[in-house]
Amino acid sequence: MRKLIQGAIALAITSSTTAGQTPVNLAVDARANANPSIAANGSFVAITWSAATAAAMDVYAALSRDGGKTFSAPVRVNDVPGDARVNSELPPRVALIPASAKGAAPSMVVVWTTKGAKGTRIVSARSTDGGKTFSPAKDVPGSDAEGSRGWESTAVDSKGRVLVMWLDHRDAGAMHHDSSKAAAPMPKGDPTEKAALSKLYFASLDGKTSTPITKSVCYCCKTSLVASGDDVYGVWRNVYAGSQRDIAFTFSKDGGKTFAAPIKVSDDGWHIDGCPENGPAVAVDASHRVHVVWPTPPDGKKGTPLGLFYAFSSNAKAFGARAQIPTLGAAAHGQVVIDASGNPVVAWDEIVNGTRHIALARVRANGSAAPSFTSIESPDSAPDRGWPVLATAGKETLVAWVAGAGVGNAIRVTALR
Fold first, then answer.
1. CATH code: domain of residue 372
2. Which of 61, 147, 235, 236 could be cross-linked to 280 through a Cys-Cys bond (beta carbons 3.0 to 4.6 Å apart)?
Protein backbone atom coordinates (compact mmCIF):
# COMPACT_ATOMS: atom_id res chain seq x y z
CA MET A 1 0.00 0.00 0.00
CA ARG A 2 1.34 3.41 -0.98
CA LYS A 3 1.43 6.18 1.63
CA LEU A 4 0.96 9.91 1.30
CA ILE A 5 3.88 12.26 1.74
CA GLN A 6 3.91 14.46 4.81
CA GLY A 7 1.26 17.13 5.10
CA ALA A 8 -1.40 15.51 2.94
CA ILE A 9 -4.95 14.51 3.71
CA ALA A 10 -5.53 10.79 4.18
CA LEU A 11 -6.76 8.91 1.12
CA ALA A 12 -6.77 5.16 0.72
CA ILE A 13 -5.21 3.42 -2.25
CA THR A 14 -5.98 -0.17 -3.08
CA SER A 15 -3.52 -2.94 -3.81
CA SER A 16 -1.54 -2.66 -7.00
CA THR A 17 -2.16 -4.29 -10.35
CA THR A 18 0.69 -5.51 -12.52
CA ALA A 19 2.53 -4.05 -15.48
CA GLY A 20 2.35 -5.57 -18.95
CA GLN A 21 4.84 -6.62 -21.61
CA THR A 22 8.63 -6.38 -21.48
CA PRO A 23 9.62 -2.76 -22.17
CA VAL A 24 11.00 -1.76 -25.60
CA ASN A 25 14.12 0.41 -25.63
CA LEU A 26 14.38 3.38 -27.98
CA ALA A 27 17.71 5.20 -28.16
CA VAL A 28 20.21 6.94 -30.38
CA ASP A 29 23.63 5.50 -29.70
CA ALA A 30 26.29 7.68 -28.04
CA ARG A 31 23.65 10.23 -27.06
CA ALA A 32 21.69 11.21 -23.97
CA ASN A 33 18.08 10.32 -24.74
CA ALA A 34 15.41 12.34 -22.90
CA ASN A 35 12.21 14.38 -23.07
CA PRO A 36 9.76 11.86 -24.59
CA SER A 37 6.29 12.47 -26.00
CA ILE A 38 3.84 9.81 -27.19
CA ALA A 39 0.68 9.63 -29.30
CA ALA A 40 -1.46 6.73 -30.50
CA ASN A 41 -4.14 6.07 -33.09
CA GLY A 42 -5.44 2.54 -32.86
CA SER A 43 -2.47 0.18 -33.20
CA PHE A 44 -0.21 2.98 -34.47
CA VAL A 45 1.99 4.54 -31.79
CA ALA A 46 4.46 7.38 -32.29
CA ILE A 47 7.18 8.47 -29.88
CA THR A 48 9.44 11.50 -30.20
CA TRP A 49 12.30 12.53 -27.93
CA SER A 50 15.57 14.45 -27.82
CA ALA A 51 18.98 12.88 -28.34
CA ALA A 52 21.89 15.09 -27.35
CA THR A 53 25.66 15.24 -27.26
CA ALA A 54 27.70 17.84 -25.43
CA ALA A 55 27.58 20.03 -28.55
CA ALA A 56 24.23 19.38 -30.23
CA MET A 57 20.62 18.40 -29.62
CA ASP A 58 18.33 16.75 -32.16
CA VAL A 59 14.75 15.48 -32.18
CA TYR A 60 14.11 11.85 -33.14
CA ALA A 61 10.93 9.87 -33.74
CA ALA A 62 9.88 6.25 -34.19
CA LEU A 63 6.61 4.60 -35.20
CA SER A 64 4.99 1.36 -34.07
CA ARG A 65 2.35 -0.45 -36.12
CA ASP A 66 1.58 -3.13 -33.53
CA GLY A 67 0.48 -1.18 -30.48
CA GLY A 68 3.95 -0.47 -29.14
CA LYS A 69 5.42 -3.99 -29.24
CA THR A 70 8.01 -3.01 -31.86
CA PHE A 71 9.14 0.29 -33.34
CA SER A 72 10.84 1.48 -36.51
CA ALA A 73 14.44 2.68 -36.33
CA PRO A 74 14.72 6.22 -34.90
CA VAL A 75 14.76 8.96 -37.55
CA ARG A 76 16.01 12.50 -37.02
CA VAL A 77 13.13 14.96 -37.36
CA ASN A 78 14.88 18.35 -37.48
CA ASP A 79 16.37 19.09 -40.90
CA VAL A 80 19.01 21.43 -39.44
CA PRO A 81 21.37 19.19 -37.44
CA GLY A 82 21.77 20.10 -33.79
CA ASP A 83 19.30 23.00 -33.73
CA ALA A 84 16.69 21.62 -31.30
CA ARG A 85 16.21 23.54 -28.06
CA VAL A 86 14.12 21.39 -25.72
CA ASN A 87 14.09 20.22 -22.11
CA SER A 88 11.86 18.33 -19.69
CA GLU A 89 9.24 21.08 -19.48
CA LEU A 90 9.24 21.82 -23.21
CA PRO A 91 9.75 18.44 -24.83
CA PRO A 92 9.11 17.84 -28.51
CA ARG A 93 5.46 16.91 -29.04
CA VAL A 94 4.09 14.32 -31.45
CA ALA A 95 0.62 14.01 -32.98
CA LEU A 96 -0.94 11.44 -35.33
CA ILE A 97 -3.43 12.40 -38.05
CA PRO A 98 -5.60 9.41 -39.04
CA ALA A 99 -5.10 8.17 -42.60
CA SER A 100 -8.02 8.24 -45.03
CA ALA A 101 -7.20 4.77 -46.38
CA LYS A 102 -8.03 1.83 -44.12
CA GLY A 103 -4.91 0.26 -42.59
CA ALA A 104 -2.59 3.00 -43.85
CA ALA A 105 -0.17 4.65 -41.45
CA PRO A 106 -1.32 7.99 -40.07
CA SER A 107 0.65 11.16 -40.77
CA MET A 108 3.06 11.97 -37.97
CA VAL A 109 3.57 15.60 -36.93
CA VAL A 110 6.30 16.66 -34.50
CA VAL A 111 6.40 20.12 -32.88
CA TRP A 112 9.47 21.46 -31.07
CA THR A 113 11.38 24.62 -30.16
CA THR A 114 14.48 26.01 -31.79
CA LYS A 115 16.39 29.28 -31.94
CA GLY A 116 15.33 32.05 -34.31
CA ALA A 117 16.60 35.44 -35.39
CA LYS A 118 14.36 37.26 -32.92
CA GLY A 119 14.05 34.69 -30.14
CA THR A 120 12.73 31.16 -29.73
CA ARG A 121 10.72 29.66 -32.59
CA ILE A 122 8.21 26.83 -32.43
CA VAL A 123 8.39 24.68 -35.55
CA SER A 124 6.79 21.54 -36.92
CA ALA A 125 7.67 18.79 -39.39
CA ARG A 126 5.48 16.12 -40.93
CA SER A 127 6.00 12.53 -42.06
CA THR A 128 3.56 10.92 -44.51
CA ASP A 129 5.53 7.70 -45.01
CA GLY A 130 5.28 6.10 -41.59
CA GLY A 131 8.15 8.02 -40.00
CA LYS A 132 10.78 7.17 -42.62
CA THR A 133 11.31 10.80 -43.63
CA PHE A 134 10.16 14.22 -42.41
CA SER A 135 9.48 17.47 -44.21
CA PRO A 136 11.68 20.53 -43.56
CA ALA A 137 10.70 22.37 -40.40
CA LYS A 138 8.25 25.24 -40.73
CA ASP A 139 7.12 27.79 -38.16
CA VAL A 140 3.96 27.19 -36.19
CA PRO A 141 1.74 30.07 -37.38
CA GLY A 142 2.31 33.21 -35.34
CA SER A 143 5.14 31.78 -33.26
CA ASP A 144 8.14 33.50 -34.87
CA ALA A 145 8.31 36.67 -32.78
CA GLU A 146 10.52 38.56 -30.36
CA GLY A 147 11.51 36.89 -27.10
CA SER A 148 11.12 33.34 -25.87
CA ARG A 149 8.26 30.88 -26.24
CA GLY A 150 7.63 27.20 -25.89
CA TRP A 151 6.24 24.84 -23.22
CA GLU A 152 3.93 23.79 -26.03
CA SER A 153 1.32 21.04 -26.19
CA THR A 154 -0.53 19.54 -29.15
CA ALA A 155 -3.82 17.87 -29.99
CA VAL A 156 -5.62 16.61 -33.10
CA ASP A 157 -9.30 17.45 -33.60
CA SER A 158 -12.00 15.54 -35.49
CA LYS A 159 -11.10 17.34 -38.72
CA GLY A 160 -7.50 16.14 -38.52
CA ARG A 161 -6.16 19.59 -37.65
CA VAL A 162 -3.07 19.70 -35.45
CA LEU A 163 -3.60 22.27 -32.70
CA VAL A 164 -0.82 23.86 -30.65
CA MET A 165 -0.93 25.81 -27.38
CA TRP A 166 2.12 27.45 -25.86
CA LEU A 167 3.51 30.06 -23.46
CA ASP A 168 4.75 33.22 -25.14
CA HIS A 169 6.95 35.98 -23.77
CA ARG A 170 7.13 38.35 -26.74
CA ASP A 171 6.09 41.21 -24.45
CA ALA A 172 8.59 40.31 -21.70
CA GLY A 173 11.83 41.45 -23.32
CA ALA A 174 14.14 40.60 -20.41
CA MET A 175 13.39 36.90 -20.56
CA HIS A 176 15.38 34.41 -22.61
CA HIS A 177 15.53 30.69 -23.24
CA ASP A 178 18.41 28.26 -23.41
CA SER A 179 18.35 24.62 -24.55
CA SER A 180 19.67 23.24 -21.30
CA LYS A 181 18.06 25.61 -18.80
CA ALA A 182 14.67 26.87 -17.81
CA ALA A 183 13.69 30.44 -18.61
CA ALA A 184 15.72 33.16 -16.90
CA PRO A 185 14.26 34.57 -13.68
CA MET A 186 11.79 37.38 -14.15
CA PRO A 187 13.13 40.92 -13.68
CA LYS A 188 13.03 42.35 -10.18
CA GLY A 189 9.78 43.97 -9.19
CA ASP A 190 6.22 42.92 -8.49
CA PRO A 191 6.15 39.28 -9.71
CA THR A 192 2.41 39.41 -10.38
CA GLU A 193 2.79 42.50 -12.52
CA LYS A 194 5.72 41.00 -14.43
CA ALA A 195 3.81 37.77 -15.02
CA ALA A 196 1.11 39.74 -16.83
CA LEU A 197 3.61 40.10 -19.71
CA SER A 198 3.58 36.34 -20.29
CA LYS A 199 0.69 35.01 -22.37
CA LEU A 200 -0.93 31.80 -23.51
CA TYR A 201 -1.20 31.39 -27.29
CA PHE A 202 -3.08 29.00 -29.57
CA ALA A 203 -2.82 28.12 -33.26
CA SER A 204 -3.73 25.48 -35.81
CA LEU A 205 -0.96 24.29 -38.12
CA ASP A 206 -3.23 24.84 -41.10
CA GLY A 207 -3.97 28.42 -40.06
CA LYS A 208 -2.15 31.65 -40.81
CA THR A 209 -1.74 33.22 -37.40
CA SER A 210 -2.02 32.61 -33.66
CA THR A 211 -4.46 33.80 -31.00
CA PRO A 212 -3.60 34.97 -27.47
CA ILE A 213 -5.93 33.26 -25.00
CA THR A 214 -4.97 34.94 -21.73
CA LYS A 215 -2.12 36.65 -19.88
CA SER A 216 -0.38 36.22 -16.50
CA VAL A 217 0.80 32.67 -17.11
CA CYS A 218 3.56 31.01 -15.13
CA TYR A 219 6.43 31.32 -17.56
CA CYS A 220 8.18 27.92 -17.59
CA CYS A 221 5.62 25.23 -16.71
CA LYS A 222 4.46 23.04 -19.57
CA THR A 223 0.93 23.31 -20.91
CA SER A 224 -1.47 20.47 -21.75
CA LEU A 225 -4.02 20.38 -24.59
CA VAL A 226 -6.59 17.81 -25.66
CA ALA A 227 -9.32 17.75 -28.32
CA SER A 228 -12.59 15.81 -28.30
CA GLY A 229 -14.44 16.22 -31.58
CA ASP A 230 -14.41 19.97 -32.24
CA ASP A 231 -14.08 20.78 -28.54
CA VAL A 232 -10.64 21.86 -27.30
CA TYR A 233 -9.52 21.83 -23.66
CA GLY A 234 -6.36 23.33 -22.18
CA VAL A 235 -4.65 23.66 -18.79
CA TRP A 236 -1.59 25.57 -17.59
CA ARG A 237 -0.17 27.08 -14.42
CA ASN A 238 -1.40 30.65 -13.95
CA VAL A 239 -0.15 33.51 -11.78
CA TYR A 240 -2.83 35.04 -9.58
CA ALA A 241 -2.73 38.00 -7.18
CA GLY A 242 0.07 37.76 -4.66
CA SER A 243 2.05 35.54 -7.05
CA GLN A 244 -0.12 32.52 -6.27
CA ARG A 245 0.67 29.72 -8.75
CA ASP A 246 -2.51 27.76 -9.42
CA ILE A 247 -3.70 25.62 -12.32
CA ALA A 248 -6.09 27.28 -14.78
CA PHE A 249 -8.42 25.73 -17.36
CA THR A 250 -10.19 26.89 -20.50
CA PHE A 251 -12.13 25.28 -23.33
CA SER A 252 -13.38 26.06 -26.82
CA LYS A 253 -16.59 24.74 -28.39
CA ASP A 254 -15.75 26.00 -31.88
CA GLY A 255 -12.41 24.38 -32.66
CA GLY A 256 -10.31 27.10 -31.09
CA LYS A 257 -11.87 30.19 -32.68
CA THR A 258 -12.91 31.42 -29.24
CA PHE A 259 -12.14 30.27 -25.70
CA ALA A 260 -14.12 30.52 -22.47
CA ALA A 261 -12.83 32.74 -19.69
CA PRO A 262 -10.22 30.76 -17.73
CA ILE A 263 -11.25 29.25 -14.42
CA LYS A 264 -9.13 28.05 -11.50
CA VAL A 265 -9.00 24.27 -11.09
CA SER A 266 -8.10 24.45 -7.40
CA ASP A 267 -7.24 27.16 -4.89
CA ASP A 268 -3.94 25.69 -3.66
CA GLY A 269 -2.57 28.75 -1.89
CA TRP A 270 0.99 28.35 -3.24
CA HIS A 271 2.61 31.77 -3.16
CA ILE A 272 6.08 31.73 -4.71
CA ASP A 273 8.16 34.22 -6.67
CA GLY A 274 9.41 31.76 -9.26
CA CYS A 275 8.43 29.01 -11.64
CA PRO A 276 7.96 25.45 -10.35
CA GLU A 277 8.88 23.99 -13.77
CA ASN A 278 6.13 21.44 -13.20
CA GLY A 279 3.02 21.82 -15.30
CA PRO A 280 -0.42 20.15 -15.31
CA ALA A 281 -1.98 17.52 -17.57
CA VAL A 282 -5.55 17.17 -18.85
CA ALA A 283 -7.70 14.37 -20.31
CA VAL A 284 -11.36 14.27 -21.38
CA ASP A 285 -13.49 11.11 -21.31
CA ALA A 286 -16.37 10.04 -23.56
CA SER A 287 -18.86 11.71 -21.21
CA HIS A 288 -17.00 15.02 -21.65
CA ARG A 289 -15.77 15.00 -18.07
CA VAL A 290 -12.50 16.84 -17.67
CA HIS A 291 -9.71 15.24 -15.60
CA VAL A 292 -6.72 17.32 -14.45
CA VAL A 293 -3.55 16.24 -12.64
CA TRP A 294 -0.90 18.60 -11.26
CA PRO A 295 1.81 18.92 -8.57
CA THR A 296 1.71 21.42 -5.73
CA PRO A 297 2.73 21.47 -2.03
CA PRO A 298 -0.14 19.95 -0.03
CA ASP A 299 -0.08 22.84 2.44
CA GLY A 300 0.88 25.55 -0.05
CA LYS A 301 4.17 26.24 1.69
CA LYS A 302 7.35 26.73 -0.27
CA GLY A 303 9.46 24.23 1.68
CA THR A 304 6.96 21.36 1.62
CA PRO A 305 7.66 18.53 -0.87
CA LEU A 306 5.34 18.52 -3.86
CA GLY A 307 2.31 16.27 -3.80
CA LEU A 308 0.31 15.15 -6.83
CA PHE A 309 -3.35 16.14 -7.08
CA TYR A 310 -6.37 15.21 -9.17
CA ALA A 311 -9.66 16.98 -9.84
CA PHE A 312 -12.44 16.56 -12.35
CA SER A 313 -15.27 18.60 -13.81
CA SER A 314 -18.52 17.19 -15.19
CA ASN A 315 -19.44 20.37 -17.08
CA ALA A 316 -16.17 22.19 -17.90
CA LYS A 317 -17.45 25.11 -15.81
CA ALA A 318 -16.30 24.22 -12.30
CA PHE A 319 -14.10 21.57 -10.70
CA GLY A 320 -14.77 19.48 -7.63
CA ALA A 321 -12.49 19.40 -4.61
CA ARG A 322 -8.97 18.23 -5.30
CA ALA A 323 -7.86 14.79 -4.12
CA GLN A 324 -4.26 13.90 -3.41
CA ILE A 325 -2.84 10.87 -5.18
CA PRO A 326 -0.82 8.75 -2.73
CA THR A 327 2.92 8.84 -3.42
CA LEU A 328 6.02 7.53 -1.68
CA GLY A 329 7.92 10.79 -2.00
CA ALA A 330 7.93 14.23 -3.55
CA ALA A 331 5.99 13.91 -6.80
CA ALA A 332 6.40 15.62 -10.16
CA HIS A 333 5.69 15.49 -13.89
CA GLY A 334 2.15 14.13 -13.67
CA GLN A 335 0.38 12.80 -16.75
CA VAL A 336 -3.18 11.54 -17.32
CA VAL A 337 -4.94 9.64 -20.10
CA ILE A 338 -8.33 7.94 -20.47
CA ASP A 339 -7.97 4.18 -20.90
CA ALA A 340 -10.07 1.86 -23.08
CA SER A 341 -12.56 1.31 -20.24
CA GLY A 342 -13.14 5.06 -19.90
CA ASN A 343 -11.22 5.58 -16.66
CA PRO A 344 -8.26 7.91 -16.04
CA VAL A 345 -4.77 6.48 -15.69
CA VAL A 346 -2.16 8.68 -14.04
CA ALA A 347 1.64 8.51 -14.25
CA TRP A 348 4.30 10.56 -12.45
CA ASP A 349 7.77 10.34 -11.00
CA GLU A 350 8.71 10.65 -7.35
CA ILE A 351 11.85 10.98 -5.26
CA VAL A 352 12.31 8.05 -2.87
CA ASN A 353 15.45 7.82 -0.73
CA GLY A 354 17.12 10.39 -2.94
CA THR A 355 16.44 8.65 -6.27
CA ARG A 356 13.81 9.20 -8.95
CA HIS A 357 11.29 6.44 -9.75
CA ILE A 358 8.20 6.22 -11.95
CA ALA A 359 4.77 5.46 -10.53
CA LEU A 360 1.27 4.87 -11.93
CA ALA A 361 -2.31 4.58 -10.72
CA ARG A 362 -5.83 4.08 -12.02
CA VAL A 363 -8.50 6.53 -10.92
CA ARG A 364 -12.13 5.88 -10.09
CA ALA A 365 -14.25 9.02 -9.91
CA ASN A 366 -18.01 8.61 -9.67
CA GLY A 367 -20.26 11.61 -9.18
CA SER A 368 -19.84 13.36 -5.86
CA ALA A 369 -17.96 10.51 -4.18
CA ALA A 370 -14.30 11.01 -3.41
CA PRO A 371 -12.08 9.47 -6.10
CA SER A 372 -10.12 6.32 -5.34
CA PHE A 373 -6.73 5.30 -6.68
CA THR A 374 -5.40 1.85 -7.51
CA SER A 375 -1.65 1.72 -7.92
CA ILE A 376 -0.15 -0.02 -10.94
CA GLU A 377 3.07 -1.90 -10.45
CA SER A 378 5.91 0.05 -12.01
CA PRO A 379 7.23 -1.53 -15.22
CA ASP A 380 10.72 -0.35 -14.25
CA SER A 381 11.44 -0.26 -10.52
CA ALA A 382 15.12 0.66 -10.89
CA PRO A 383 16.22 4.12 -9.69
CA ASP A 384 16.98 7.01 -12.03
CA ARG A 385 13.70 6.63 -13.94
CA GLY A 386 11.34 9.50 -14.68
CA TRP A 387 9.32 11.82 -16.90
CA PRO A 388 6.66 9.27 -17.89
CA VAL A 389 4.16 9.94 -20.71
CA LEU A 390 0.93 8.08 -21.52
CA ALA A 391 -1.22 7.12 -24.51
CA THR A 392 -4.18 4.85 -25.18
CA ALA A 393 -3.63 2.51 -28.16
CA GLY A 394 -6.76 0.49 -28.81
CA LYS A 395 -7.36 -1.60 -25.70
CA GLU A 396 -3.87 -0.92 -24.32
CA THR A 397 -2.58 1.85 -22.11
CA LEU A 398 1.04 2.65 -22.96
CA VAL A 399 3.64 4.37 -20.82
CA ALA A 400 7.02 5.65 -21.99
CA TRP A 401 9.72 7.04 -19.72
CA VAL A 402 13.37 8.02 -19.46
CA ALA A 403 15.54 5.17 -18.16
CA GLY A 404 18.88 6.37 -16.83
CA ALA A 405 20.75 9.60 -17.44
CA GLY A 406 23.53 10.68 -19.76
CA VAL A 407 25.06 9.00 -22.78
CA GLY A 408 23.88 5.43 -23.28
CA ASN A 409 20.48 5.74 -21.62
CA ALA A 410 17.15 5.03 -23.33
CA ILE A 411 13.49 5.84 -23.72
CA ARG A 412 11.44 2.81 -22.69
CA VAL A 413 7.86 1.99 -23.57
CA THR A 414 5.47 -0.76 -22.53
CA ALA A 415 1.78 -1.62 -22.24
CA LEU A 416 0.17 -1.76 -18.81
CA ARG A 417 -2.13 -4.44 -17.47
1. 2.120.10
2. 235
